[in-house]
TrEMBL record:
TM regions (residue ranges): none
Signal peptide from the UniProt entry: none
Gene Ontology MF, one: orotate phosphoribosyltransferase activity
InterPro entries: OPRT (IPR023031), Or_phspho_trans_dom (IPR004467), PDZ (IPR001478), PRTase-like (IPR029057), PRTase_dom (IPR000836)
One annotated GO biological process: 'de novo' UMP biosynthetic process
Keyword list, A-Z: Glycosyltransferase, Pyrimidine biosynthesis, Transferase
Pathway(s) where this gene product acts: Pyrimidine metabolism; UMP biosynthesis via de novo pathway; UMP from orotate: step 1/2
EC number: 2.4.2.10
Domain PDZ: 96-172
Gene3D superfamilies: 3.40.50.2020
The name this protein goes by in its record: orotate phosphoribosyltransferase
Species of the source: hydrothermal vent metagenome
Length: 201
C-alpha cells in the first residue's frame, strides 16, 4: 500500500512512494458525505441549522487514510515545536476511535481509547490501552463545538497521569472550542473549520 503524504512533508514519511493530498478536495468529500441541513440539537445543548454526521465520513477508508496523514503531520509539528516526542495518541468513544486508530497507524504511535464511563465488568477501566505517568499525549477528536467533550476526556487522561499536550480535531465548528480548550492550558489544532467545508449558516 502506498503511503500518502501531506503537502508539507515530515520526516515520518517514506520518500518516493507518496501521493500529495488535495486538502480542498478532501474538505469537499467530507462536506458532501456528512453535512446535513435541518434543525438539530447539539451535545452542548445548542440548536443548529446544520449537523456534521461524523460517521458518514469516518467510515470511508479513503477519507480516513488522508485524515490519518494530516493528523500525523500535526503531531509531528507539535513534537518539533515543543522539542519533545509525543508518546501516545488518545481518542474518545465512539467517534474518535477510527480517527485515532488511523492516526496511530500513520505515526506509529500507540493509542489510548477513552470510554464515556468506566466499565462495570472485567477490568472496570475507563481508559483502554497502556499509559504511563508523564506520557506526552495528543488527543484526536472528530468535531468540536464548545470543546466540552474533549476537555472531559482530557480530565480523565490527566487523572491517569498523562501530560496532554494538544487536541487535534477533524472539524472545528468555530463556536468556542478553541477559546475553551486553550483556556484549559491545552494547545488546539483543527484540520478543517466549518468555513473550509463551505458552511455558512
Amino acid at each position: 500500500m502506498r503511503r500518502l503524504e501531506a503537502c508539507t512533508t515530515t520526516e515520518h514519511y517514506d520518500r518516493g512512494m507518496t501521493t500529495t493530498i488535495d486538502r480542498a478536495g478532501l474538505a469537499r468529500k467530507i462536506a458532501e458525505a456528512s453535512l446535513l441541513r435541518g434543525e438539530f440539537t447539539l451535545r452542548s445543548g445548542r440548536t443548529s441549522s446544520y449537523y456534521l454526521d461524523k460517521y458518514l465520513f469516518s467510515t470511508q477508508p479513503k477519507v480516513l487514510r488522508e485524515l490519518g496523514v494530516l493528523f500525523a503531520e500535526r503531531v509531528a509539528a507539535i513534537a518539533r515545536d515543543e522539542g519533545e516526542p509525543i508518546a501516545r495518541l488518545a481518542g474518545a468513544e465512539l467517534g474518535g476511535i477510527p480517527l485515532v486508530t488511523v492516526a496511530g497507524l500513520e505515526t506509529g504511535l500507540p493509542t489510548i481509547f477513552v470510554r464515556n464511563a468506566k466499565k462495570d465488568y472485567g477490568t472496570a477501566k475507563q481508559l483502554e490501552g497502556a499509559i504511563e505517568p508523564g506520557d506526552r499525549v495528543v488527543f484526536v477528536e472528530d468535531v468540536t463545538t464548545t470543546g466540552g467533550q474533549s476537555l472531559e476526556a482530557v480530565g480523565v487522561l490527566r487523572e491517569a497521569g498523562a501530560d496532554v499536550r494538544a487536541i487535534i480535531c477533524t472539524i472545528d465548528r468555530q463556536e468556542g472550542a478553541r477559546k475553551n480548550i486553550e483556556a484549559a492550558g491545552v494547545r488546539f489544532e483543527a484540520l478543517f473549520t466549518k468555513a473550509d467545508l463551505g458552511i455558512d449558516e
